[in-house]
Amino acid sequence: MYICLVDSLNKTMSQISCINCQSLAVSVFATLTCRELEELNAYKVSKIVKKSRIIFNEGEKAGGLYCVHEGRAKVYRTDIDGQEQIVRLAKEGDILGYRSLLGNEYYQATAQTLQECTICFIPKGHLYAMLERNVMLPLKIMEKLSHDIGFAEKRGFDFITKTSHERLAEGLILLMKSFGTTKDGYINIVLTREDLGKLMGMATETVIRALKDWESQKIISLYKKMIRIENHEELLKIANIEN
Known about the structure:
The protein contains eight helices and eleven strands. The chain is an alpha+beta fold. Strand 10 and strand 11 form a beta hairpin.
């Protein structure tokens, strides 16, 4: 179900200050002035969205921009057979739905929370007005778009040239770089084995077997759904990439 940030099953928050947002420095809004941030703060809507809830659905008209203030989310597409493929993951400071919004298109993918998240929604009209007034904001969004396109191109190339085990090993390394680690050294994002498979283009059973094999070889450690890289050098070798 499309929440549009008015879903009664989710909790509306007291307004989050854009100026004091801890994710501001890593977001596309980092170049805004204090006055512009105050304006942004006035017309955005903030919501606590429960785990596994849909933020927006593939095929719906883009009506605004979503920004992850806190939590983790996934963006996925569904093929004609109903199979999901995760195209990217989002963390604090990341924006969602921006490509479809700027292209005046329908959403090309579905966004769903992986854990309880705090999501901010900026209506289309207000965002467009800000884009017209602030020359740096479009540049930051273009930079974000360029990065995401480059990542998608690399993934497509890897699907053709790398084995499933190489993709999984490289994927774990990239997840650690992107999301960091907990105080116990585990990758700071919790994904089901099924979601790992959807992200890496692998069958769930193949993911499970590979992780168990690497655990027995002490390359990684597993605790429930959490993964800790124990032997980074060996995982790099499996991924067929240089340190």
